[in-house]
Design goal:
The protein has two helices and ten strands. β7 and β8 form a beta hairpin. Pfam families: Oxysterol_BP (PF01237).
Length: 147
């Protein structure tokens, strides 16, 4: 008893402070329920993040919860230096909780704790300054009617 959404395409993220531009793909989304559990939403599948300026890239796997046992929201990832075939860092944990990094140097550390992250207000251009196919401009009528 589930429904899946397969996300097709890619996203672009620009870090203005570092003049870096990232191209990323998205995981699939699933709404699930088993007979004896409360429904839940989860992410699953493989994604990538690539920076054309630096050449760094990452491969990410969102693991879906097994039918019996196992945890929800698990993630594993590998981060690669430019032109390297082996990752210099491996990450595992929960994408909505704590993720841990293991470096090839032998160092282990908390990579990120999403529960302790501050909320940062988005910087979005005004609708009149956006192109016709930018998300907020394209979906403005749907957003208005949902509200």
């Amino acid at each position: 008893m589930s429904i899946g959404v397969h996300n097709i395409g890619q996203g672009c993220v620009t870090c203005l402070d570092y003049d870096e531009h990232y191209i990323l793909t998205f995981p699939n989304g699933y709404g699930r329920q088993s007979i004896l559990t409360v429904p839940w939403i989860e992410l699953g599948g493989e994604c990538s993040i690539n920076c054309s300026k630096t050449g760094y890239n990452a491969s990410i796997v969102f693991h879906t919860k097994p039918f019996y046992g196992g945890k929800k929201h698990r993630i594993t990832a590998e981060i690669f230096s430019p032109n390297d075939k082996k990752p210099f860092c491996s990450i595992e944990g929960e994408w909505n909780g704590v993720m841990y990094a293991k470096y090839t140097t032998g160092e282990n550390a908390v990579f990120i704790d999403t529960k302790k992250m501050p909320t940062i207000k988005k910087k979005v251009r005004k609708l009149e300054d956006q192109d016709d196919f930018e998300s907020r401009c394209l979906w403005k009528d749907v957003t208005y009617n949902l509200k």
